[in-house]
Amino acid sequence: MSVSDKIYHILSKKVSTAYLFSGGSIMSLIDKFKYNKIKYFIPTSEASSGFCSIGHNKSLNRLDSVIITTSGPGLTNIITPLTDAYCDRVPLLVISGDVSTHMQGKNAFQEAPAIKLTDPITHFNHTITKDDDIDEVFDYAFEYCEQNKQVHINIPKDVLSGIYKEKNHYFDDLFHFTNKYIKFDQKTIDHVTDIINNAKTPVLFVGRGCNEASSELMKLALTGSIPVTTTLHGLGVFEETHHLSLKMVGMHGSVKANMAIQNADCIICIGSRFDDRTVGNIDKYAPKAKHIIHINNNYTDFNKVIPNSINIYGDAKQVLNMLNIKIKKNDRSNWLKSLDQYPLSFKYDNDCLKQQHIIKLLNYQLNKLQLKKNLIMTTGVGNHQMYVAQLINHLYPNRLITSGSLGTMGSGCSMAIGAKIANPDKIVIAVDGDQSFNMMNDLGMIQNYQIGVKIILMNDSKQSMVNIWEKLFFNGNCIATCKTNPDYEILGKAFNINVITIKNGYNDNQILSLIKEFLEYDISKPIILNCIVESDYCLPLVPPGNGLDEMITYENINSYVADKSSPPS
To answer: 309: which of 113, 292, 434, 493 fits an S-S bond (Cβ 3.0–4.6 Å)?
Structure first.
């Protein structure tokens, strides 16, 4: 068999789906997809294939798809989604073709320094040579992917089309997977449970690493009467209609969540890494906390942002099960009552049709039609992303898929496509801003494969979030954020996709009726809800340099004086 045959055989045992884009250096591998053991899809661009794979894998919380691309620009176009997966810790496997070995380093057509480019944004990258044991290289790669890590395997054209020869496993030293993680024992668990049991004002601060331990988290919160706040990626891991829910924390989090962190004497962080969007000014973070407990399955996160935390390396479910044995019932009614003085809602001025109002009515219809159990949502990046986080009551873990740490505009629809391919029986809604949507038009792929994603398009002809930052921090000089949009009804028609439009002047009953029509549309067919809205602030907002309790809110926005020297990043 050829090397391409061998690689296809290996992949067919590990993944169900490939997102691929062809080119001269990778054609011999792509030709093997004629065997039809792996489903394959050809996206609009290589970047789109990367975000499709992220949406696919993240929705399943495991590696189930692979990205295959050609050399040079094929690979460089994958750099952004690969970086996005690296930042948000989504398992991703990229296989790229390369120019033949005898042409490397000679500026050959479509040559790029593949391994140098991906080295900082992967946990393992490797160019396969004629002497490599292919089984061993891929075994090593899959071990990393099983830990939510990112891998790039680069294969020169002549190697890929050559004859496969079985090798002895003589690369054991090179490809030996080591476990460097910090261990914990029963003594550590006992110490931590004593701290939690004796805390007066504890808060559970929960991220994506807890998504597989939702029931264990609920048990801990209920037993200890401990309020729970989550990161963007942790939304839904704790049911947000529950009285102990504080909703999302951080830069655009709820006032109640941010004030709880700032007044807590004990913070129990599970599956998060204290990134800047959730912490604010580190020097002002949680000034009353005597103990910060950090439970994580990535040892490199310990003490990176918050020093001197009590660190427990382990799977969230495993650690929570051990803690739940020792946690005592506790009456913390005074702590919970003290938090009730802070709002959990997100106010806005409803003087005209705004994104927030659409999202609130969407949440109402999703609840009324009882669709959330079968729902996955994705977003682009910007105000619409934060409104979805704030105004949807998230009830189930791992149902909001979005670019967090890298904040990649243009990713939302591709992620929705991947999530829908991985979960064909689920309703998949992409809420996208117009400028995110315009960056990477995936309607061609949606049309080609009749992928039944539902797209809500927030159409205000602006890059809304940065537009507001320009107004707040640059004296209203809106230089780079106002754009002219196409007619999305005509665009949808060009791709044979049904479009429903909502605009200013429609009353709530009309809007609810159109949202209902949109939600009940055949889930096997695509549809767009084109919402012509006015731009608005996204509040609360914790400006740079501020603590979590120093927020711009709906109540103080008119009197707030911004530090012009320090706009958000």
So the answer is: 292
399 and 304 in a single domain? The answer is no
Concatenating the DSSP letter of every residue in 365-383 gives HHHHTT-GGGEEEEE-SSH
Quick one: which of 389, 423, 419, 422 has its CA closest to 404?
Answer: 389
> Does residue 375 sit in the same domain as residue 410?
yes
CA distance 511 to 361: 8
- Chain-centroid distance of CA 308 in Å reads 28
Rounded CA-CA distance 514/530 in Å is: 11
- At 379-419, the pLDDT tens digits run 999 999 999 999 999 999 999 999 999 999 999 999 999 99
Shared-domain flag, residues 277 and 371:
no
Shared domain for 361 and 501, answered yes or no, is yes
Q: Which amino acid is at 185?
A: D
Secondary structure string (H, E, C) spanning 19-36? EECCCCCCHHHHHHHHHC
Residue 447 buriedness (CB in 10 A; 0-12 / 13-18 / 19+): middle
pLDDT at 194 over 70: yes
Q: Two tokens at 17?
A: 């789906």
Instruction: Find the radius of gyration of the CA atoms of the chain.
Output: 24
Q: How confident is the model at residue 176 (pLDDT cuts 50, 70, 90)?
A: low
Structural domain including 223 reads 186-339
Distance CA(319)–CA(192), nearest Å, equals 11
Do 316 and 227 belong together in one domain? yes
396 and 441 part of one domain: yes
Residues paired with residue 163 on neighbouring β-strands, in sequence order:
2
Q: What is the pLDDT of residues 411-449, one digit of tens each?
A: 999 999 999 999 999 999 999 999 999 998 899 999 999
412 with 332, same domain?
no
Between vectors from CA 371 to CA 367 and to CA 524, what angle results, nearest 5°?
Answer: 145
Average pLDDT over residues 106-123: 92
**Distance separating the N- and C-terminal Cα atoms of the chain:** 52
CA distance 410 to 447: 18
pLDDT in tens, 273-328: 999 999 999 999 999 999 999 999 888 889 999 988 999 999 999 999 999 999 99
Number of domains in the chain: 3
Assign residue 40 the CATH number of its domain: 3.40.50.970
Is 359 in the same domain as 325? no
| Across 532-547, average pLDDT | 94
Count of residues making up the chain: 569
